[in-house]
């Protein structure tokens, strides 16, 4: 079943009936948290037995504070190690964020990690480019890095020689806890696919 859903227009009662009649047990696609916050409670009320609810871009503590209980059981994925694993890299990141960007609250957000990694890669490229860096030296030397892991924030090393312009094939998966107050890493949380040629 494919459905186009608009939060303030879609008849969710009718949509739930369609999902139930289709015997669907999975919800996935470009489903926003605001849509899921309306859809999931309606599906639960109609006793639709879902096995998986997979929504991209939903790993956000602000989202949990706003909609958490409505999104209970939802699974999402990230291309960095989830904060719930509390690694030394996370502690370094959080300490730096609290010291240099205290206005970003909470600091454990995907956009903050993306900014951190972009800055870290830029600094690494400048360090490798030498005392008088040029654009060519920056690119050439950064592409010679075969084991970049963002200081431990990435789930595995990235080879910049082969990974330029490629989509990630490894993601960590987390599930919204049953009470909707936290994310719980799935085991194994890291799942890797393969590129099709």
Radius of gyration: 20 Å
| CATH-defined topology of the largest domain | Rossmann fold
By DSSP (H or I, 4+ residues per run), the number of helices equals 6
Listing every helix as H and every strand as E from the N terminus to the C terminus, the arrangement reads HEHEHEHHHEE
Shape: elongated
Number of strands: 5
CATH superfamily of the largest domain: Response regulator
From the helix content, strand content and strand pairing, which structural class follows?
alpha+beta
Tally of domains: 2
Sheet with the most strands: spatial strand order: 3-4-5
Q: What is the beta-strand fraction?
A: 5-15%
Q: Mean pLDDT across all residues, rounded?
A: 89
Q: Please write the CATH class name of the largest domain.
A: Alpha Beta
Terminus-to-terminus distance: 29 Å
Q: Which CATH architecture of the largest domain would you pick?
A: 3-Layer(aba) Sandwich
């Amino acid at each position: 079943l494919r459905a186009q859903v608009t939060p303030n227009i879609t008849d969710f009662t009718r949509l739930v009936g369609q999902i139930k009649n289709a015997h669907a047990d999975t919800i996935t696609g470009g489903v926003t948290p605001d849509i899921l916050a309306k859809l999931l409670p309606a599906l639960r009320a109609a006793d639709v037995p879902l096995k998986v609810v997979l929504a991209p871009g939903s790993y956000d503590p602000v989202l949990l504070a706003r909609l958490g209980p409505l999104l209970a059981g939802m699974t999402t994925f990230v291309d960095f190690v989830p904060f719930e694993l509390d690694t030394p890299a996370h502690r370094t990141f959080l300490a730096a964020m609290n010291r240099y960007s205290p206005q970003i609250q909470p600091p454990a957000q995907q956009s903050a990690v993306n900014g951190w990694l972009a800055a870290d890669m830029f600094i690494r490229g400048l360090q490798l480019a030498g005392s008088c860096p040029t654009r060519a030296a920056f690119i050439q030397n950064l592409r010679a890095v075969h084991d970049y892991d963002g200081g431990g924030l990435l789930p595995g090393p990235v080879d910049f020689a082969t990974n330029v312009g490629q989509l990630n094939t490894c993601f960590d998966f987390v599930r919204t806890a049953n009470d909707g107050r936290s994310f719980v890493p799935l085991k194994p949380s890291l799942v890797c696919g393969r590129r099709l040629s």
